[in-house]
Amino acid sequence: MDPGGERRRGTHDRPRQRLRFRHNGRVPQARVRRRVAIGAAGILLALLLLTLAAVALWRHGFARSEPDGRLAAWANRRPDRLKIEWQAVRSPWPGRVELDGLRVAGRSRKLVWEVTAERASGWLSPWALLRREVRWDGVAARGVSVRVAHTGPVPARRRQPVTTAMPRIEDFPQPPVPRPAGGRKRWGFALRHLEFAELREVWIDDRRFTGSARGHGGFAIRNADGRAEVFASNVSFSAGRLLAGGVAVAEGLAGDGRLRIEPWPYRGTPAAAVAARAVGRLDLTGDLDVDALLAYLFGDWPGLELESGPSRVEAHLATRRGSLRPGSSLRLVTPRQEVRFLGFEA
């Protein structure tokens, strides 16, 4: 008998033991983390594919709607009140709009206005459109010009503007058609986080500022409560020139200003009531033609002659709710001052 064989047989004859693991109903932590990671990666991949598909569809639809005029027709639904024109427009992402040669003009019962920009871009919120609100965020504009002209009779208490020195905005020869009573609610408008550079002109009636300015700000006209608001805004300017009635009254203007206007009812509110809600500050230096400015503000007084020559002005003005705040100052340095009245001279 082979002892080795007996040992081998004895080994094979032993009952086999089954490996048993305790199971308490829990999946191992490593397996859970792996499943979560795989699921998250699948969700992210699906979202990425949906985003790419949405971007492709958006670009295709935008590219088709611009050449055939549908985009312009949608943007100019009330051409008697608002006109929007551009030389080129792009939309690389849903809601993102980039324009070259932008011009926006509008008219209300009392004024016409026009804003132009060499380049402008921003994000248009599609969800706000469902609430009848045109909301732009992160707007950047360069090479900007703003023109405003009041129409209709001027109240007797106000100075009559020099009509030949007013901007010509001829898009709206007739007043806008009145809205039908009981129609749909008005659209709201919001311009948030605006940044502008190379603001070259601000022309309001017969007062025209030219130079170089940059800044940021925003405003909103809400349809829910019929109120308007100017968000905290800042502007810095240099090499400014101010014309009043077609005559230069200031040169070499430089400084910066800050302004915020609390919400007010934007229909029928007098300018004085709006100013009472303003908080701002202006720091300004420049050369002022006092004679030309006084002639513009008060006209000619028979028998009265004023001669002061070019003057240096330095202003630090802070306002709150229509009143000057403590610390405001205005310093005017004139080389000479002569006053003549009915033959008397001083």
Task: Write a short abstract of this structure.
Helices cover 21% and strands 46% of the residues. It has six helices and 16 strands.
Structure description:
By secondary structure, the chain is of the alpha+beta class. The protein has six helices and 16 strands. The chain has helices at 3-13, 29-65, 70-75, 126-129, 271-275, 290-298; strands at residues 82-85, 88-90, 96-107, 111-124, 133-150, 188-204, 207-221, 227-244, 247-265, 278-289, 304-307, 310-320, 323-324, 329-333, 338-341, 344-345. Strands 1, 2, 3, 4, 5, 6, 7, 8, 9, 10, 12, 13 and 14 form a 13-stranded mixed β-sheet that branches. Strand 15 (338-341) and strand 16 (344-345) form a beta hairpin. The longest helix is centred in the N-terminal third of the chain and has 37 residues, at 29-65. The radius of gyration is 35 Å and the shape is elongated.
Strand content: over 45%
Report Rg.
35 Å
Q: How many extended strands?
A: 16
Biggest sheet descriptor: 13 strands, mixed
Estimate the helix proportion, in percent: 10-25%
Spell out the blueprint of helices and strands.
Blueprint: H1 3-13, H2 29-65, H3 70-75, E1 82-85, E2 88-90, E3 96-107, E4 111-124, H4 126-129, E5 133-150, E6 188-204, E7 207-221, E8 227-244, E9 247-265, H5 271-275, E10 278-289, H6 290-298, E11 304-307, E12 310-320, E13 323-324, E14 329-333, E15 338-341, E16 344-345
Parallel strand pairs: 5-6
Antiparallel strand pairs: 1-3, 2-3, 3-4, 4-5, 6-7, 7-8, 8-9, 9-10, 10-12, 11-15, 12-13, 12-14, 15-16
